[in-house]
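# step 3/5: fold
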Amino acid sequence: MSGALTVVRQQESLGAAADLDFALAMLDAARRGALGPTLRIYRPRPTVALGQRDAKLPGFAAAQAACRRNGFEPLVRKAGGRAAAYHSDCLVLDHVEPDADALTGSRGRFADFGVLLAGALEKAGLKTGVGEIPGEYCPGEFTVYGEGPAGERIKLAGTAQRVVAGAWLFSTVLVVGNGTPLRRVLTDCYAELGLGWDPRTAGAARDLVPGLSMADVEDAVLQAYGGYARLAGGDFEALRQVM
């Protein structure tokens, strides 16, 4: 088990762009020694976080317009990957830690936190696994998926990582409910980018466990993190002061 991890619940989104920028500010604060291991949890505004490669495609401007038509703010994130969509029925986890050897452990973090998150969703009543789903949006080796009664796999958690000298940021989006608008905006966005994907791979945990609440998922995640580190409560306004 690691040392203490401060858990900070952000009650209101700062706005799509400001929430992404705040995560990077947390990373910088950890890098310069002003912030210890911290996990920020919040429910985001409707956002499509596009990747750096997406921004170089001929259809990028049209994809941005398609996102806005669907009520999602298109942004380009610093971490890798392809376009991923999320909204207020999702939980975002931004986990930062100072680490003198941050780069060395980057792949291991993807694997370890994938297992941790899959275990959390299992506790919430889902059948889960870790691994890329053929045709998924923002494909990744460590996607956390839920499995339906016919063996269908739905992407429930995507992870991204940013590493700098002296610290790392590990971000997770957990899709709890309301998968329909996510499928719709991703279908339109990926069509404009000229990228193929299978909309059946997108959905929400509540599709598989009806009635599952945000609180159920958050509680399960924190129980899982309790096996990683000793959890301590934190205050969002105090966190803002060290940025």
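# step 4/5: annotate
The radius of gyration is 17 Å.
# step 5/5: archive (pending)
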